Amino acid sequence: MHGRWAARRARGLEPALIDNESHEIQSFEPDDDRHTHLRVAGPAALLVAKIVKIEERRATPRRLKPKDGLDVLRLLRVVDMGEVAQRLQLLAADEMAGEVTRSALAALREHGTQGDGPVAALAASAVTGTEDPDIAIESTVFLVEELLQACDERR
Questions:
Q1: Cα distance between residue 104 and residue 55, in whole Å
Q2: Superkingdom, according to UniProt (predicted)?
Q3: What radius of gyration do the chain's Cα atoms show?
Q4: Which residue ranges make up each domain of the chain?
Q5: How are beta strands 35-41 and 20-26 bridged, if at all?
Q6: What is the 3-state secondary structure (H, E, C) of 128-147?
Q7: Distance, CA of 40 to CA of 94 (rounded, Å)
């Protein structure tokens, strides 16, 4: 049994040990000068973690969360594809993060490039009522294909 604050190893988080940056976190209150620096996972590590989570949950569909697909879509909408592709290639070659990164890229290629695949379907389900689900599906597929093409060009 693990204690409440025990660290546990979770598959898919290995890339965050490599793809991360230091960010200063400070109070929102103007008269509070507290601040700290934290290492925050980069976009390639976040993408791997989300795809691994979706893949693990596909075996038990009731565990699938629309937010995971939406997180992938939102992430891909704001990143520089070339930069993320470069980081993914570095992660794929890394001894610690390589296997899980390559697995996530294979899953993204298999399940993220079709409109009826789980990544696009989850994103569409999450935006219902706030955005046209068909646009979310098309955007997800387009952006995943764009990222995978950028990865392929770097091989």
A1: 8
A2: Bacteria
A3: 17
A4: 41-153
A5: antiparallel
A6: CCCCCHHHHHHHHHHHHHHH
A7: 19
Locate 43 and state its tokens: 């976009």
Of the candidates 122, 152, 148, the residue with the CA atom closest to the CA atom of residue 137: 122
b/e string for 45-63 if b means 16 or more Cβ within 10 A?
Answer: bbbbbbbbbbbebeeeeee
Instruction: Give the residue carrying structure tokens 């009522």.
Output: 129
Structure tokens, 126: 């999450």
> Which are the contacts of 104, defined by CB distance < 8 A and separation ≥ 6?
12, 47, 48, 51, 52, 55
Measure Cα distances from 117 to 14, 66, 99, 108 in Å.
25, 12, 23, 10
The H or E element that residue 54 is part of is: helix 43-58
Q: Any idea what DSSP says for residue 12?
A: T
Q: What's the mean pLDDT in 86-110?
A: 97
The C-alpha angle with vertex 120 and arms to 118 and 122, in degrees rounded to 5, equals: 65
Question: Token pair of 39, please?
Answer: 């290492």
- Whether 59 has a pLDDT exceeding 90, the answer reads no
Sign, CA torsion 154/78/116/62: positive
Mean pLDDT across the stretch 50-61? 92
What is the residue whose two structure tokens read 């079709």?
114
